[in-house]
Every structure is written in structure tokens, then in C-alpha cells.
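Q: Start with the shorter request: fold the first protein.
A: Done. Sequence, then structure:
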Amino acid sequence: MTDLYNDIRPYRDYEVSAVVELLLSDNEFIDTLIALRGNRIAKWFPSLVRLVARRTLKSQLSGVNTIDGFQALVKPRLDLVVEATSRFSYSGINELDSATSYLFISNHRDIVMDSAYANSVLVVEGHRTAQVAIGDNLLQKPWVSHLMRINKSFIVKRSLSGPKQQLAVSKQLANFMRQAIVENQGPLWIAQREGRAKDGDDRTEAAILKMLSLSRDKSVELPDEVLGKLNIVPLTISYEIDPCDVFKARKLAYGAGYEKAPFEDLKSIAQGIQGQKGYVHIHFGTPLNQPSLSVPEAVSRIDDAMVASYRLFKTNFWACAALGHSIDVADRDAALSSISQSAFFARFDELEDVERHQALEMYARPVLNWMARKDRV
């Protein structure tokens, strides 16, 4: 039987052993792990350190021949990251059925940790872990693709030039995601937009929802009858401190001509995992299930849910005030903080004025969106 999604889907259990062997034989993968651990000896004795690292990893992966087995190996390391968070909290998950497959459409602040925090909650609350969408722009090396797909990631192809090609892969992705929901294969996670919201403004790209609508059976369904059947759940993650805030501010200040350095995304991934995050909160929203749901209506409802559910911290209010915006002191004082105001602003001491402004805008935007929503409702 033809596998229609072979090139984008997560790996299956029967593929795990072969993928593990590919990872163990990839010197660049081993060297990257060594670099992330900050092993200084590797500079002087690279072959020896690589040999020891490969043997250690092979021992850890011994007997891992299923996706669940691989995720069980990763879980303790994820738990350490969650435990290192000053305070991690979540809400809304108790309203969701652990036996149902949901499509989580999430705001996007961190390449890896957004979905990792979500999966941590799902495991704790007895849900299945989510299959996670990842753009092929991040899969610059074969080992990165192997590592992501063995950890239940599916690929969003973005690096195609022709409109016909793009339409074909968009339909493939839409059909893959819908089939996963209909066949109850477990939850899915996808970002509300292409790329992180580096400016702190969580807005859903209509193109994401239009892509999902491509799974429509034209013989029996109207265009607005698809989205309401996908168990879409708005997912909102809030970070008190963005570990990549300085990187993002510099990129925003540079403007449209900015070009990524080699392995920049991998460095952002490492910084997002290891860097200071302060308090983190994640909220699972209410499913948007209804007989008819248009793309504009879905965009509006998801965006509204993001603003309403975003957990504002003192860092957000401090940034807002620093930019000259009026804030409610009572709201600021009620917000949580694990960092002092002086320590927060010190994060941006080395930035140029325009870069510092971008960093503060990034933190202030959720407050401004929240105040605008209050005025509307």
C-alpha cells in the first residue's frame, strides 16, 4: 500500500532502529551534542571525545526500538528543563478529553520549548504526546530531520518555488493532519504562523487555516465545513523572560536584509532550552468545534483567545512603561515576577538604542494587545 505521507510524517516504530543507527554514525550529530555540552577537551582530542560520546550514546539508546521508547529516553531531560523553570504552570487541560485527538494551534515564541512544554503537560495529565509540525527550513542537516521525526515531528515544506508544487505539498499536509485527527492518532501541534513572533505580537496567519481547509472533500463539503471538524484548540504559552530576546531584537533592528548565520537556528534552539525563562504559563483553550467555521472567523477567535489567555508578567508591564505607555499600576503589581526590574533591564545593556527599543516592544506588545481587547469588550 502506498504511503502518501512518507516524506513528511513522523517515523514509525518499525523505522526506529535504522534511524538510531544513522544518528550514531553521523559525526556531525555527535559533534553537535559534544558542543552543546561545552566539552573543552574536544578541541584538543576530537577523535577521542567523539569515540567516548558515541559509545555513551549507543549505551543510552540500547534497546530503544519504538517511538515511545525514544520519547521515554528524552523525557527525563525535558523534565530537568521544566524543573529548572522558576515556575511552570498550566490551565485548561482539565476541560479536554484525553481520548480525543485535538489540533493545537499555538502562539510561537521558541523553536522547541513551546511544543515541549505542551507535551510535558499532556504526559502529566494522561494525554498522548502531540505530533509536532516543524518547518523544513530548520532541517538543514539529515541528522536534524532524523532526530525530529523520531520524536514525532512532521514536516512543513516551505522551501519550494513553484505555486503548483506549493499547492501539492499544502494539500498533502492538510490531508495528513486531517487523517490524524479523524483516525484519532493523537493530538497535533502547529504554530499559528510561519516563524516565531519575534515582535511579541501573536497573530494567526490566515494561510495556515486556508492550508487546513485544503483537506475538503469537494463532493460533499462546503469550504466553511472543514475547520469546525478538526478539534482546533487555541494554545497560548507565556514566558516571563525570552531566552532569545537579545537575538530577536538584533534581528528585528537589522530589518528585511538580515541573513541568518550558519547554524543560527540550532544556536537559538540551544539558547531556548538552556536559557533563563523565569515563569512560564501555558493555557489550553476551548475547542472551536461547530458546523460552519470560516477562515476569517477562525483567525479572529484564535487571536482573541491568545490575547485573553496570555499570562502577563511584570516584565511585560515594565517594558510597556519604559516605552511611555500608560499602564494600570494595580495590574502591574498583581503580576508575577522572578526577576528584579534592574536585572530585567540589564539584559539589554549591550544593545544599541534601536535594538533595545525592539526588545522592549517585544515584551510590551502582549500588554498593549490586552488593553486594546479590554477596550473592545
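Q: Next, the second protein, separately.
A: Sequence, then structure:
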Amino acid sequence: MTSPENAVSPPILIPFVEPLRTGGELEALREAVGRRRLSGDNLAARGAEAYLRGALGVAHALLTPSGTAALELAALLAELQPGDEVVMPSFTFSSTANAVVLRGATPVFVDVRADTLNIDADLIRPALTERTRAIMVVHYAGVPCDMDPIMALAKTHGLIVIEDAAQALHARYRGRPAGALGDMAAFSFHETKNIHCGEGGVFVCDQQTWGERAEIIREKGTNRAAFFRGEIDKYTWVDVGSSFLPSELNAAFLGAQLERSLEITRLRLDLWDEYQASLGGLQEAGVALTPQIPQDCAHNAHIYHLRLPSAERRTAVLQAMRREGVQGVSHYVPLHSAPAGRRYGRWVGEMTNTDRAGEGLLRLPLGSEMKTEAVAQVIDVVRRAVA
């Protein structure tokens, strides 16, 4: 007889996420290889950057190897120094805080809103000190933060606002694109994102001086890009920098996805709407919270999540889903309670909503290539699991 410890887990029939394939990636890669210019900042990269500048309405969009690298580039441009402080939500990925910590600055964590799990704008002011240099917001699940009061507060106190828009391509706030709402922003094109190239990201901003300096920093601190445009007769080391350039292969893959990114977003929204229409009753029944989208926001269906009343309840539901071949996952361990968060940062006020999300949030499978039959199966499994 097989013991529980040695029992074989059932196969996953519906994975949490499968990297999207549009069908145009291989041809884009072949063309890039044929051009024999595979280092960064070549034809495919410039094409992807042009698309992103147009989609976001920004002056500067520079591809990076990851969303993490884009955040680190933003922190360099913000000239964060040891002793500086940056206010941010605790319910986010480590990259948000690492970009600050790597500059010697301190992340100051505050709670999120109960509805969107985005930073609570009302809690930022109490966290400000004479050392505060910037505010970092995170558009969780592709739902934009309430940016107007945040930008007004930042203007009053002379602070820089950096958007961690890793999950938010094609999301909008009051008609304006997420990622073009603050002073600078970072997007991710990791394979778990709506649009991806395996690993990738982009830094965006509108300010000319930041855009010009970002171009230098990501080229190891040299003015190489200006040299290749014929603006100078030789290039040299002129600033601090690192290698923040993705290869042309990543850019080519990304370009094929960007061409269909609006279509992909619509497909995801249709699936998200199916979840919401069928599972919204769980909130009315008091067994789980479902996503809430403010009226002034247009999200991009990056995540569909449920929030269960406890970690134990979430574990039980995840196990019930897994027994039927459906893969669900939790999300962030709040940074203020993580070992590195306690070491490098501090927090202000109660973290009630953050802690509840960390304990009870469960993400359901959602991918652009999912069939409606798969969504229906997930809905059926979840309904029975939470009953």
C-alpha cells in the first residue's frame, strides 16, 4: 500500500501559466539571426522601443534584460543615496525594494488598499520624512494605482514617482496608460507576463535629461549609442553604468508579441470576465473576495485572484485544485515581514490588508491560449473547493 508520503501527485491538466506563443516569434528570430547583429540596441530592439513609445505616449523607452534591471536603472537615475528613503507598498516582489537597497537607500513599507491591493495613497504622507526621496508605486495585477493624489503629494514634497508597471502593459488610469503616469516606469516581459520574451523589460520616461542619461547608463556608462548615430566621432566612458541591454534575439521575440499585444489583452479580458461572472457570487456568499476594479481604471487581465479568509483555507483549496489537475498558486510574502525586508527596510502603520493578502490570496490559471472549456473546468473545481 502506498503511503501518503510516497503518493504520486496527479498530473497537472491546467497549468497556472503557459508562456504565450503568437506564431510569429520563429520568423522574427530567423530574421534577426540573418542580419548577424545579435547584440543589443539593433533593428528589432529599436522597433520594439518605437512601438512602446507610441503605445505609452512617452519620449523614451529603452529595453532592458528584465523588469528588475529597469527598476535598478530608475533608481540610478533618481540618484538615490545612502540615507535616502523611498515609500512603497509591502505587497510587491523583491525587485521593487532591491532597486532601492542596492543604492544604499531604505525602503519604507506602507499598507495597501483593501480593494485593489495597490498602495494606499492616504498612507503615504504619514510615512514621509526629511529623508524621503521618492515614491514607488506598484500597479498590482494590472490595475493602476490611484495616481492623481499620489502625483499631487509628490509635487508638494518634491519627490520622484517611479511606477513599477511590471504587470500593467495596456492598463489605463482615467484614460492614460499605466507607466506614463509618474516620472519614470519599469515594465517586465518575463514569461509569466501577458507579453513576454522569456526574460526582458523596458525603462520608460518623458524627461529628456533622464532619457539621455539612461541611454548612457545602460551602455556601461559610455556614449556608444550616440557614436553609432554618428553624433560623435568616438565613444568613451562618461558616467556610471552597467550592461542593461537585452540581446537582439530577445528583442525580436518581443517584437512579434507586441504586434499582437492589443489582441492578446482582449483575449485575456474575455477569460477574466468569465471568471468574474461565475465566481463573483463567492464574495456575496462570504467565502472569498474577488477582484475589484475601480471605475476610473481599465485593467489588462494580468491576474485573476481570490482572497480566502486564512492561510489554512487557501492551502486546503490549493490542494483540492491540485487533486483535480488544476494548478493555482499563492503570491507575495509581504516584504515587511520577509527576512531581508526586516534587515534593510522599515514600515509605518498597520499592515492589515497586506498581511491578509499575503495569507489568503490565491491566483487562478489565466493565459491567452486558455480555452473557455478550461476556464469552465477551473470554475467548477474552485466552486466545489471553497464550498
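Q: Describe the second briefly.
A: The mean pLDDT is 95. The two ends are 31 Å apart (CA to CA).
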